[in-house]
Amino acid sequence: ERVEKAEKAKADLLLCKLSADEECVKAEQELIKLKDFQEKQRKDIIMSRDTHERELYLLNQENTELKREIEKLKDDLAECSSVLSRDGQIKKKVVEMKMKFTHMEDMKDDYPDMNTHCVFGVTTKIPFRLNQNQALITFEDEEVARRLIKMDKHTVNLDNKTADVRVKPFMLEMGIKFELHVTISGKKINISEVPELSIPEDWMRDKLELNFYKSEQGGGGEVENVNYDKQSRTAVITFLRPGAANGFVRCNKYPFFVNGRWYRLSVSPNTDVHLEKFQATGQAAKSARTVVITGVPDGLLHNDVMTDILMIHFQMSKNNGGDVEEVKYPTMKKGVAYVTFEDQEVVESVLKKDEHRLEDRRLSRYYPLKVTRYCENVFSSVTSVLNMSVFKDQFVLEDLIEEFKKKSTALSFGPLQSNGHISVQGSFPAIKLLRDFLLLKAKSLSKKDKKEDSKSHQGPKRRLQQHRLTTETSNFVHDADGEKQVVVLDTDVYHYMKNFFSTTFLINDDVVISDITDGDITTVYIENAGSRSAAGQLLRVKEEIENRSVELHKALRKERIYYKEHTRDEKRRYKWACESLKPDYPYVLIIPYDTHIDVIGNSSEVFEFTKEVSNKTQSLFQTR
């Protein structure tokens, strides 16, 4: 009986032990789940903190830029205020010259006050500075200068010696042009050097009025008002009769009898001076009258013929055009031209037109043009090469490209090469839209091929085409299980992000980010390297990169500094100039190349940076 009880107790203990083991296993599983949840929360907190830090950094950068702009605006306001305080006077040393009297206008009803109205046209010569061993030549015909610039190098005979010279376009600085309107009052005169006497101001005012009322020298007459300032010893006499002040024009000194003593007052005409039609001339004014044209068909006609076609197009009233001063084509970018109008108002009119179609009998079809303002603070265009060979067994490539051209009117397409490659140029957002359209085409083909793959009669050529299509499009479409995401970026924006927002590409060990750069386009691959990383994390990283690139694409501007001599010494001087200015411009990215230097950053900082680099390098050239 005791053995049975012991056995029973033993069985109960075993059951309790098994139950306890099960509870222990459950507790361990719960603990593992809690640890995983805590780890996920920790990673989310880290990502959220990094995101907030990056946003805070960007806000601080924008705040710094705004403070700079505020300081600059304050300086501009102070300068404008000082100019206004000087009563619109412009002080400038002018060489003594003879003035030409053109004509006198008849009196009109607009001037019943008998005032004398004068208009002076003032134009300052545009200043320029030549360095040593340089000469400036101005031609009557612009085409002559253009041809010489195209030839670049020339040989000139100088006193039985030959000299090799290079011809380059010369950028003039800014000059000014305005009209100075001067009105000499026929009713008012200015009085100065009024004697200081120990009498009330009202008495002095009355004595001045009486003195000029009874005047017999130079006219005078009934006085309407006397404005007297004792501190400056000046007064303004206003007569009631128009023309009464004209008699004092040739009178510099005028007698004044007061308190039994004679004084001599200084008399001068009362004038009102103001500026009209103030205009900056030179490059600054030219940029405001210039528009950028993209989508110009490249390589179809001779450059001079295309220039004439563009000029005719933008002179037509149906295109909201007007008088064209200059058409610059070709430019450094294919399919891009610069059109400068004589009147800035034409620029606004041309930009208002919804669509510009370039049509001519020498062109096989019309070409849509995109017109934008000159010097927008964006990257104007990028170039990408598309490989269309993956579609050649499914479509007629020429028809497919025509479909692209209709859908993407803002892009310029080059000729289709025999290997299926085609060059595309345009704004980066427009190229991204074209890429999305291509991906849809590729996806539809891939799904269609998978259906046909299930059929037994599929031939080897068809299977080879499917393999090639799948291989090439897999580089652009994220995997079905969400283990890869792809972002296409402008290469300049990508470089800027890598330098100033590097934490965007540093997530954790479960995410691997790589890139492939092809000219103006950089493709960024975001892949899953760990076993527990969710597809949502890759998507969040992709969205963060895309959002940041969109912000930077709107804010950044690129300027290109070209080497002139391409010597090692010149490159060293430019490099020194850039490095010496870098501490003053911490958010400007400098990328040196063999033929030039790219400068990327905020519009105002890039402008100031390139200007200072030019000044530093010029001073170095002059000292050598």
TrEMBL record:
* InterPro entries linked: Nmi/IFP35_dom (IPR009909), Nmi/IFP35_N (IPR009938), Nucleotide-bd_a/b_plait_sf (IPR012677), RBD_domain_sf (IPR035979), RRM_dom (IPR000504)
| Any one GO cellular component localisation term in the record | extracellular space
Q: Name one Pfam family in it.
A: NID
Which segments carry the region annotation Disordered?
449-469
Q: Which domain of life is it from?
A: Eukaryota
Annotated coiled-coil segments of the chain = 49-83
Keyword field: Coiled coil, Cytoplasm, Immunity, Innate immunity, Nucleus, RNA-binding, Secreted
Q: Which residues form the RRM domain?
A: 289-376
Offer an example of a GO molecular function term for this protein: RNA binding
Q: What is its main location?
A: cytoplasm
Q: What is its subcellular localisation?
A: Cytoplasm; Nucleus; Secreted
Supply the Gene3D superfamilies for this chain: 3.30.70.330
Task: Please give the start and end residues of each transmembrane region.
Answer: none
SUPFAM superfamilies, per database record:
RNA-binding domain, RBD
One GO biological-process annotation of the entry reads: innate immune response
Family according to the record: Belongs to the NMI family.
**Protein name per UniProt:** RRM domain-containing protein
| Species of origin | Mycteria americana
